[in-house]
Every structure is written in structure tokens, then in C-alpha cells.
Amino acid sequence: MSEPGERCGATAVFWPDDEACEAECILPPGHDPADVHEDEILGQWSEDELPTRHPAA
Ligand SMILES: [Zn+2]
């Protein structure tokens, strides 16, 4: 079982307007599908759409 509060933590840069917005995945580690992440404000993104950085395991 994963620790409470543990997150995937993958990040991507959104461009909702003219400014970059950093998104951070709030889903639990090992979520499925693994290439679709979700930020609590910016919403979901797919690794196909945005370059995604993963935290060091
Ligand atoms: Zn994620």
C-alpha cells in the first residue's frame, strides 16, 4: 500500500495563456493509465500532449 499523501509527482508545463504554468500530478504513484496525469487546478494531461518530467524514483 502507498503512504497517505504520496503522489505521482510528475510535472509538465501548461500554457493556458501567455504564461507557463507548472502542473504537478496529484494522483497516487503507479496510477493507471500511467501516461495520463492530473493537476488539481489545471486538470488532466497526457504525456502525448506535453513533455512530462518524472521525479527520481
Ligand atoms: Zn501522474
TrEMBL record:
Q: What is this protein called?
A: Uncharacterized protein
